[in-house]
Amino acid sequence: MSEFLQHLVNMLVLGGTYALLGIGLTLIFGIMNVVNFTHGVLYTFGAYMMFIVVQQLGMNFFLALPVAVVAGWALGAIIELTLLRPLRGSDIDTTMLVMIGAWIAMQSGALWIWGGVAKSVATPFPEAPLVIGPVSVSWLRLFVLAAAALLIVATYLLINRTKLGCAMRATFQDHDTASLMGVNVDLIYTSTFAIGSSLAAAAGALLGPVYVIFPQMGDLAAVKAFAIVILGGLGNITGAVIGGFILALAEELGAGYVSSGYRDAMGFLIIIAVLIARPTGLFARSERVG
Amino acid sequence: MTTAVPALKVEHVAIHFGGLVALSDLNFTVDEGEIVSLIGPNGAGKTTAFNIVTGFLAPTHGSVSYRGTPLDGLKPHQIADIGLVRTFQRTSVFPNDTIYDNLLIGLHRQSRVHLPEALLGLPRARLTERKVRERAHELAEWVGLGRRIHDLAGSLSYGEQRLVGVALALAAGPSMLLLDEPVSGMNASETHTFVELIRNIRSRGVTILLVEHDMPMVMSVSDRIVVLNYGRIIAEGPPDTIRNDPAVIEAYLGKAAVHA
Amino acid sequence: MLEINDMVCGYGGVAALKGISLQVKTGQLVALIGANGAGKSTTLRAISGLVPPSSGSLVFEGKDMTGAKPPRVLASGIAHCPEGRRVFPHMTVEENLNMGAYLRSDASEVAGDRDRIYVDFPRLAERRQQAAGTLSGGEQQMLAIGRAMMSRPRLIMFDEPSLGLAPNIVEQTFAIIRRIQAAGTTVLLVEQNAFAALGMCDHAYLLEGGRIVLSGPGTELIANEHVRKAYLGG
Amino acid sequence: MKLIATLVSIAALASVPLWLRDPYLMNALITTGIFIIGAMSLNLLLGFTGQLSLGHVAFFGIGAYTSALTSLGFDIGVFGDFHIVHEPWPPIAGFFLAIVVAGLCGYLVGRLSFRVRGAYFVIVTISFAEVVRLVALNWVELTQGPLALNNIPSIAIPLPGFDELVMRTKFHNYYLVLAVAVIAHVLIARLVRSHFGRAMRGLMENETLAVSVGIDVTRTLTLAAVISAAIAGAAGSLYAHYIRIIDPDIFAFINTVTMVIMVISGGKGSLAGPIVGGLIFGLMPVFLRPIMAPEAQWIAYGGVLIVILFLLPRGIVPSFSRLLSKQRGQAPAPDGMAFAKNDAKEPA
Amino acid sequence: ETIKIGVNEPLTGAFAASGTYVVNGAKIAAEEINAKGGILGKQIELVIEDNKSNPTEAAAVAEKLITRDKVPVMMGAWGSSLTLAVMPKLMEYETPMVVETSSSSKITTSGNPYIFRIAPPAPVEAAAFRQIVDKLELKKADFLVINNDWGRGTAEDFSRMFKEKGINVGLVETMDQGAQDMSAQLSKIKGSDSETLIVTTAVDQLTLIFKQAAALGLKKKIITTGGSQNPDQIIAQAGAAANGTMHLTTFLPWFPEKTPNPKATEYFIAEWKKRGFDFAGCTESFRGYDGIRTAAAAIEKAGKPEAAAIKTALWAIDVKGLNGDIVFKKSGPEGKESGQSQPNVYLIEISDGKVGMKSL
Ligand SMILES: Nc1ncnc2c1ncn2[C@@H]1O[C@H](COP(=O)(O)OP(=O)(O)OP(=O)(O)O)[C@@H](O)[C@H]1O
Ligand SMILES: Nc1ncnc2c1ncn2[C@@H]1O[C@H](COP(=O)(O)OP(=O)(O)OP(=O)(O)O)[C@@H](O)[C@H]1O
Ligand SMILES: [Mg+2]
Ligand SMILES: [Mg+2]
After folding, report:
1. Is D327 an interface residue toward C (CB < 8 Å)?
2. Over the stretch D87-129, which tens digit does the pLDDT of each residue have?
3. Which of B193, B257, D331, E197 shows the greatest Cβ crowding within 10 Å of its Cβ?
4. D174: which residues sit within 8 A by CB, 6+ positions away?
5. Is B44 in the pocket of ligand 1 (CB under 6 A)?
6. Are residues B196 and B71 part of one domain?
7. Global pTM?
């Protein structure tokens, strides 16, 4: 029983980080329809930003977080302006491949700059965990969970409650018509990609200190993010959050009660099962024919 | 002209989307060789009825049969195989292919050969290929797009794409054709030509179910009209009766249309 | 108010408009008719900036708008209700209408205008929270018309507004168009229902193969032999 | 015209071992050739049905494992004492079994693709590949897991009347790969030019419409998936018998990405696309290796990829053939923007 | 005119960090040898190629080194699957290779006479551990190992040895090579009744495991194996969470005086620091240093830079390596034996953020 409780708590903490990974990608993949292979790199970038700002420049941990987020935002904007804008209107596979190219190049760039040896970031949180009965959890992870929740809510409100969010959705549903409504679609493209990127960087900045930081750290994160976004249904923020927790639950229980070798397999099997039952994710958009 | 053998039978069909009842207890038949129009206000459920007949939606209640075969549970392509082919209210083409290739895709049912024949390029496969290619040219000429046959369908104007849509449906070789607002986006003269086209198709023995808001056209071409409102039939009969039905005028035609 | 001079434009090298000149005077209702593929929609797209002209000029209220992007065109007072509905499929009816007022910041008046549209098209009022993509064709058309009116333009362009509408709604839509004209909005109308369009317009242009071949008051065009034959079906 | 070009290219490729004496380059050509066969099979799915399989390496790997296990034999226990024992078979049998088994897996995934499309299909395929990888990793008794299967024998072709021809040298393997590639190419070409191919295109562009003219989605997609997977399986078998060791890393995502790069850069939906893209991106590392630092090689690789797509967004082959047809004065195919794009996928 | 030695290591991809360490160690060895006048009167030249952490590339690199650069002997290729992929090429071109890191027992047992390994495979490590295990008073141990040949091999060989020693074996959990979150496995282990946890994986995952174990309040004796732990990095990154952990290592850069060849160790560490590398990297890089010195010694003994002669000479060398005498013993099927040397194994303990020899 106490083991089960511990698994549940782990699931909550892990699910929060998965959800955070998912929402940034929902913006870019779900709403913009760009198969964004640079998402993992931006996650890595956010983590290295923390490393630089905290370990090398000696700044305060809490100040470093916004710095990493802003840097991610800027890098995202640059990627959109230089790589995606010239290919506007090309099909999704072409932009996907450009993103693959950028992923390969940027990841190797990180290896070149920082080397392959993992880095870590010191945090102001106590090392001793919070212990409640049979369950313990680290303070740092609780902080990450809280920060993730905050970012998720903010993103949700941005997309669903603001005019900018409305314009974003409109632009990617029909970009000509959106421009007829007076939307500056160029600006929307850049800012959506930048916001999605800054969320990825935020995830990296928060999780980098939890784990360790190395050039390929984003790969696994990106695969999980893609899975989460799809699990929840494209472009659906609530879906991405729930998808994140479902994946975390599948992995925890898979590792805990089936076999740790098949831990990730459990996650993927859940995804296959969900998609067979609901081919457009948990929160499908309503569609019609004719 | 009509042989009074029911081809399509729609019995007690109902469907709802969430709380919204789109069709309730719909009953009508279309006889072999007949032209029947389904009209009614926007959102009355006409396209939804098409979707149910052609297998794109499963009704909550009721059943549909064609020439005695129940269509329940059949997939859209199986229904097309039986000979029921539809067009779409929205323009619907294969945008990145030429008109010619569009029609070749449409001719799928006529071009079927076995996989090994196709892979080995056997004579029967070649002969079939030649035949469908000829047919594609014929069809393009027929809808008046012969000159543009090598243009991408996606680059055509709205009205031209609608013509391609009809040609595609014909390519599938239907015994019954369901047309969803075929002349929307055409002017009166083009509509006129199109009416001739429909009569022509019918004279080859194809049964037609038509959804259209162009009243002059509907009145001139239909043998019978079924009127829907809020998912129910409110009137049914020959054009002259419908034209003067007060309920239809109230719900649908409006005052001006009485003169049409 | 709007003046186009010798406008040429096209898609990927093929000219769809081969030198078009037309004028729309303030307060007028001007109709544009022509066969499928004549270039009517392209003309409207060129005005609203969706397709850039390769030559020619466009002047609106004395300002040169040649080559302006759609948001600037809209901001200067021209709204475009595009062909084929083009509603935002995954947004609700209400959100679609709000998008029409994207450039406006007077929230309370926007709400008022929206209610006005719900009164005009009660069908939409019943469907406020439905995803626009699941509306029926005619319902989407109503939404597109309403959405275009939400920006309170000084010139509004309709591309085949009657498309897919039931006869009584067509009637009502034309009444609305006349009403907004009467309220001072200039209208540029593309219609396949040439009879109706010519009957209600102040001035009309006939397009064929990317060129204007005839222009004059609506009544004059109705009487024209060629127009009768080719466009009015009689 | 096209036929002559094809024959000339094949003759040119066939002559390579006769004059190329550099084993390192030969090795690169052979491994590239194997990946090109994989890319060709991916192109059948991506380019002609529009379904992007980002788990395509699963079929490749399944082919490799099937072939390796057939020729090495195995002994697995089921239900306690009961054992399934397989004695080694000739590798050529493994090759054909690889095709069959991969094809069967293609059938499974194809049936799935009947339900999911687009991005959802992408994730199902990634998940499938991951699950297969994890099975290969954890089912140690059968696959040796991470301990790898090594000492895989070379393919030997029995020649009636002679001894068998053992494909041990690069010379042999080159022709073996070339022959399989040509057969795969011809099969795919015939398929996509038949009405099956048109049905695939129809589904790719506008599924609702395609279905309404009588095209059977499940059958068409399953057929494409089976043939595609079978060809990928053949490529995997060639890989196993050439490299002679496989471990679960064969399922690595980067291997799929390599195939995707080959297909899209060369031009998806064009028969020559994966070959051209494959030769460029398969051989580029060989030429980059001597001139720059390892990290820089990857940066250059990614950079070249981006530049090619900037210049030729449709991929190399389609962009050039467009250029050619323009020069010959044919009307260029305009971009279907306007309403067309809206109609393809979105609801009414 | 130089004598070439091929180096086939992962410099990009998943194993980039380790491969780079090994290459740096190799460079120190080459410079040292050259500074002393080289071998056979010639300077040696390392031809270093990146195998991209990818078996196909590792085989291609071997092909290039042998046929283009004409190296008579190679060192490589770090990971077991990389090395296994290279092995057919060694047979094809009859060129020997010194295997500096890979631990899979298959490498020396599958009948490839061109393989000479200086790294200890799991059975060797288990045998070394056997000598001291009694003093640790273990009763029941769980395993958490990386899911590859190395981790699985370790779990197998150590379990066998434990059972022989009457120590119970509890859970055997695995983790994927790239996995970052091991909380699920650790939670399960936390709930078991073992008092000891044996962990086998690379340094990054060890760091994560210690941190996550601390966060879960897991209080067990943790012993790591494999010799790639890099304790300094662990101390730097895991902080207090590393205290009390024990590690089986093959090299003792902290206590040069306790190594078999103190002078060489001191020299190596001095060079390493001089080049500005992280001290933490020593525990991996020394393998590259030893590997190149082994190859050089064989060339010297052979008297000519030719593959066949070097292969024969490798059987006859006796090099004082940083972690013991490098002498190859026969391993694998008769007539086709590979060479395997037996390095020393030590147990160290981290306490108060410092590395100490475990006093037994
Ligand atoms: N998938 C769906 N989800 C929700 N509501 C739907 C869906 N499909 C149709 N409806 C609703 O059902 C009603 C009937 O729609 P349908 O398209 O059949 O109308 P129609 O008679 O064809 O109208 P029109 O003449 O405007 O084309 C409409 O009110 C529409 O909003
Ligand atoms: N996106 C496009 N790409 C290429 N050519 C196009 C595109 N859109 C329209 N065209 C071409 O431009 C010409 C004019 O088209 P336009 O849409 O303006 O016609 P229209 O008069 O509005 O016709 P309709 O009444 O059918 O809507 C047509 O020949 C059409 O084929
Ligand atoms: Mg309808
Ligand atoms: Mg038009």
Report:
1. no
2. 888 889 999 999 999 999 999 888 876 678 877 888 888 889 9
3. E197
4. D16, D17, D26, D29, D30, D33
5. yes
6. yes
7. 0.92
